[in-house]
Amino acid sequence: MPAHTRRRTFLAAAAFAAAVTTGLSACGGGSTESTGDSGGNGELLLWHGYTEADGKVLQTIVDQFNDSQDRWTVKTEPLAWTSISEKLLTSLSAGNGPNIVVQGVDTGLGYSKQGAFVSLQDYYDDEQYTENDNFYANLVEQVTFDGETYGIPMGTTAFAVYYNPALWSAAGLTEADYPTTVEELVAVAKKLTVDADGNGEPEQYGIALPDQDAGLLSAMLHSGGGDFITDGENRLVSDENVATLEQWQSAYVNDKISPTGMDGTAAMELFGSGRAAMIVNGPWEITSAESFGIEVGVFQWPSDWVHGVANYWYATSMNDSEEELDGVKAFGDFWNSRTSQIEWTKSYYPPNRDDIDESEFAYPIIATIAGFSPQAHYYATGISTSVTDITAETDSMMTQIAQGGDVEQLLQAASDKIDGYLANE
């Protein structure tokens, strides 16, 4: 389908979306002046939500792309992630949205269905683009919808287990004790849990394990031989999942390895306070722990499947000419070049490609984390509009399980509600 036809299709869908989201548009937090121009002057507007050190590295690579050729100038506009969600559809329908935007797997599917994101299959099929040959295969699979690939890998990483070396050493543990099974991970967490006065409230927890985190839940289920949601199919109820969650329930309730009622932010604060010896997180845990004065070690979640962050460059309906789409693809190829991906490791993200030597990473710990990338997956696939509702259900379910509720009944109740959400996808 030609680019201008795709854009007309989107505008018809966006007219309804704009009516629904007028209130959101009014409170969106970015500039209303677009520096992109769909008239073909060589400028491409890029929206992203990276505002810390990773945003500075991103801008460095954008500047290098702009300096590397004279056909395209990418102009960046950093926005809060919530503002991107609020503004994107209405900005595109008004004709002043971005040509390129960073989004994850979940929104990629929804926006592609609405015509807001256009296919980038040509990027993978055209031999002039060479950097995609080195991508981890799982990265491309996650943004291939109905046989068309819509995203170019931007910032992707596996979650891993980070630990406090001082607490690890105090418990008599060494690198030889890195767990290779869930059972071993729980055993290590028990060894690191300290309840000196025996009152049932540990002074030190073995692990900060959030029970309000759908990604971690998915990793638990897959590690036990089960599944969560794949290709829009709810697989929450199974014998494997019951057994897995009963195992983790015992670790929470009987072994007190982690407090309950935590989301990811609370878990980071607990680890940072020195009251938890381990945490499951992304590489931003490195700088978070550093801000608390804690150095971290890291090892792989003990399974061949772990949840991860997967953000991509998407081409929007603002690209109403093939020339502009060529610019998007050229930028995506530059971003994923060896040189750019080595630069990107300064952001504490591992690269999207597998051919970078350990000596070339900005930090040795990121080279270690990069080794986990082939096992990284988005927590669920095939859902687009019900993500928030589904995760609210599983967060509530998991907190009740972690506090001793009936696993089988809670799984079934959450599954029934999730089926209702998926029926409306």
TrEMBL record:
Keyword list, A-Z: Signal, Transport
UniProt KW Transport keyword: yes
The keyword Transport is annotated on this UniProt entry: yes
Residue runs in coiled coils: none
Signal peptide location: 1-26
Pfam families: SBP_bac_8
UniProt similarity note: Belongs to the bacterial solute-binding protein 1 family.
Record-given protein name: ABC transporter substrate-binding protein
Source species: Kineococcus glutinatus
Taxonomic placement: Bacteria, Bacillati, Actinomycetota, Actinomycetes, Kineosporiales
